[in-house]
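// run 5 | inverse folding | seed 20
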């Protein structure tokens, strides 16, 4: 049997994050600045988080994205997002809270 080969990421460059961890990290630039984004697999998430994009809970065992600004060196302001919520963050408007009797139009 031959030894196992290391696999490369789809973009042709090696995945960051080291040998076989449950996450891969990269830097993304968008209209709202530069972000460090880490994809967390379902097996790598052990507790529930609240997504700032949709304000819904991300249950344990569900893959998601952790993002923080690139200028935040310690990552103290990291936020856990659903993947679709992170991708749609520039298309979303600020969430408006309405009372129960307010019209929805």
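// decoded
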């Amino acid at each position: 049997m031959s030894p196992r080969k290391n696999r490369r990421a789809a973009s042709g460059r090696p995945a960051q994050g080291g040998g076989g961890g449950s996450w891969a990290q990269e830097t993304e630039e968008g209209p709202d600045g530069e972000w460090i984004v880490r994809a967390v697999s379902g097996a790598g998430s052990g507790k529930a988080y609240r997504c700032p994009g949709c304000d819904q809970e991300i249950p344990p065992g569900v893959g998601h994205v952790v993002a923080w600004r690139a200028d935040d060196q310690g990552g103290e302001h990291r936020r856990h997002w659903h993947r679709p919520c992170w991708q749609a963050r520039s298309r979303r408007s600020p969430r408006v809270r309405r009372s129960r009797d307010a019209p929805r139009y």
